[in-house]
Amino acid sequence: MNGSAVFKWTKEYLVNILSSGKDPIVSDPLLINAFTQIDRADFVPDLLKDKAYNDLELDIGFSERLSKPTVIAQMIALLKPKLGGKYLDIGSGTGYSAAVIGFVVGENGKVYSLERVQWLWEQARSNIQKYPRLIQNVQYIYKDGLEGLVNQAPFDGIHIAFAIDKVPEALLMQLKMDGGRLVAPTIDRSLRIIQRNGKDEYEEEIIEGFNFDKFKEGLA
Questions:
Q1: 67, 92, 97, 113: which one is catalytic?
Q2: pLDDT digits (tens, 9 = 90+) for 202-215
Q3: Is 67 labeled as catalytic in the residue annotation?
């Protein structure tokens, strides 16, 4: 034996990576608590649970992938979810991002999460059952996402989990006029953060260096 062992990431180590250092990815105490309480392993398929806390993109089959936890954390931190807020999550995956946001918004908030792939939608709905306090305020909907959810708008924030060509006007119009935020990757490997400050007034920030799977149309 050489006395060495492979270091294994734990939930505690991952949360420490997200929330510590000179310029932490997550600094909001509510969000740090959400990442502490919502276990990523509960949203990862059984065969991949040993990699649940590693900062890796996970291939879950059928050309679907789960983003790195650091990337998910950065996007949600940029969304700035707040207690009692109402949010739209487009691209549920296995349900992790919506669960984290749902924990932040609390029992008086609401998260609507849209998923176009039926087996992922079913997984997300099953996974959230592990968190009884979130069942009422996190709703997963089997729906093609880029039209948003007009009947529940306006939203405090909209999070998109896949790369799009450009942000649809229909989604911008579903943001609240007093600071509603949208966080979306685009196919040019950028992350766009758009804040609505009035009826036709938007403020945009672009962060480069993000690679996401491209948007696919239609239900599957």
A1: 67
A2: 999 999 988 777 77
A3: yes
